[in-house]
């Protein structure tokens, strides 16, 4: 790590023992907390993480088969796209910077910082953070485009990034923006733990999974599908049923049991 590099790992002495039953959840919390301290994540990001965590708990903190199918369809859609962009906000940057850069490389997508609570300082801090984790080009700072139908700062995008994209990955997206992006004709891939949220319900491909598990799994599927023909990729996308995936996630949440594998502590 360089001197300027942002370290979001636990400080020595506050490390979480790997055999703790809630290890993954506690590491995630720490990363978000450190993201706030580093000026990457907004304080609202802490609340968003808490909300997501509650859904993840009810899902058993696992990738459902329906989410895995969505992740494969997302990989196929990204490989089919003419111009794919992965939107990065303060939570995604704190939780999965390296994994997001790896996904962009695997599917030849652009990375664009796009914030709900946009400040110049956070835009720059996130772009730097992604570069420190291997990104060569990060869009978002030009801010010379608009998503039609949104008030100024929330609609600001790069004209040659999200503005020109045919496919966008929007993890943890706000419902208004997800609807506006869909209305602008983008094929949307949303990652969100809440199957009832407007964003995944708007998406062509809703991924109901923790971004920590989802991003590397989309990359793994993309690597697996790298040699597939366009028609094979199209078939993977067409066979995916968004409504079915949302229903399966909701059923897992409503019908889950605390006695199962996702035991509680
Ligand atoms: O960095 P910014 O300014 O762009 O702000 C980002 C947040 C996430 C704070 C902003 O977009 C926001 O306020 O989002 P919401 O409306 O709170 O929605 C966040 C959604 O993400 C909720 O539906 C959560 O369940 C979900 N979520 C939270 N953590 C995760 C998650 N989904 C997947 N993985 C997570 N780790």
Fold blueprint:
Elements: H1 23-37, H2 43-59, H3 65-80, E1 84-88, H4 90-95, H5 97-107, E2 110-113, H6 120-132, E3 145-146, H7 152-155, E4 156-157, E5 167-171, H8 175-183, E6 187-191, H9 198-202, E7 205-207, H10 211-225, H11 230-239, H12 242-255
Helix pairs in contact: 1-2, 3-10, 3-11, 3-12, 5-10
This protein binds ligand PTJ.
Report on this model:
The chain is an alpha/beta fold and 265 residues long. It has helices at residues 23-37, 43-59, 65-80, 90-95, 97-107, 120-132, 152-155, 175-183, 198-202, 211-225, 230-239, 242-255; strands at 84-88, 110-113, 145-146, 156-157, 167-171, 187-191, 205-207. Helix 8 links the parallel strand 5 and strand 6. Helix 3 (65-80) crosses helix 10, helix 3 (65-80) runs antiparallel to helix 11 and helix 5 packs parallel to helix 10. The two termini are 34 Å apart. Mean pLDDT is 92; it is low at 1-5. The site of ligand PTJ has 25 residues, from helix 2, helix 4 and helix 10. Ligand PTJ binds next to helix 2, helix 4 and helix 10.
């Amino acid at each position: 790590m360089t001197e300027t590099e942002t370290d979001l790992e636990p400080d020595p002495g506050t490390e979480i023992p790997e055999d703790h039953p809630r290890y993954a959840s506690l590491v995630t919390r720490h990363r978000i907390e450190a993201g706030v301290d580093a000026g990457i994540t907004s304080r609202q990001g802490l609340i968003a993480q808490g909300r997501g965590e509650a859904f993840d708990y009810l899902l058993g903190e696992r990738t459902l088969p329906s989410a895995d199918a969505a992740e494969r369809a997302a990989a196929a859609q990204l490989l089919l796209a003419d111009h794919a962009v992965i939107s990065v906000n303060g939570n995604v940057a704190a939780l999965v910077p390296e994994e997001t850069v790896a996904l962009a490389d695997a599917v030849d997508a652009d990375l664009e910082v796009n914030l709900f609570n946009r400040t110049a300082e956070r835009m720059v801090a996130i772009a730097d953070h992604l570069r420190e984790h291997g990104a060569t080009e990060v869009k978002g700072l030009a801010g010379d485009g608009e998503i039609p139908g949104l008030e100024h700062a929330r609609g600001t995008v790069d004209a040659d990034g999200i503005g020109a994209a045919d496919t966008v990955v929007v993890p943890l997206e706000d419902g208004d923006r997800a609807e506006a992006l869909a209305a602008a004709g983008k094929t949307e891939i949303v990652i969100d733990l809440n199957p009832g949220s407007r964003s995944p319900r708007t998406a062509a491909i809703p991924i109901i999974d923790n971004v920590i598990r989802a991003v590397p799994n989309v990359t793994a599927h993309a690597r697996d599908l790298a040699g597939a023909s366009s028609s094979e990729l199209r078939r993977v996308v067409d066979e995916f049923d968004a409504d079915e995936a949302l229903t399966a996630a909701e059923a897992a949440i409503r019908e889950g049991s605390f006695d199962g594998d996702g035991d509680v502590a």
